[in-house]
UniProtKB/TrEMBL annotation:
Organism of provenance: Nymphaea colorata (pocket water lily)
Database matches in SUPFAM superfamilies: WD40 repeat-like
Upper classification of the organism: Eukaryota, Viridiplantae, Streptophyta, Embryophyta, Tracheophyta
Protein known as: Anaphase-promoting complex subunit 4 WD40 domain-containing protein
Length: 51
């Protein structure tokens, strides 16, 4: 599941951090998945985006 969400006003994207260690970049207009990143082998509990 999703543990954290952050919004980037720079590129109008949402970023989610998950219990599976994945970070997903989503288009905030459509909700479509743009990219997935393996950030950790453990759960990610928080996320921050800086532009």
């Amino acid at each position: 599941g999703v543990n954290a969400i952050s919004f980037s006003s720079h590129n109008s994207c949402l970023y989610t951090a998950g219990a599976d260690g994945m970070v997903c970049q989503l288009d905030s207009s459509t909700g479509g998945l743009l990219e997935r990143f393996r950030s950790s082998k453990r759960a990610v509990s928080s996320i921050a985006v800086s532009s």
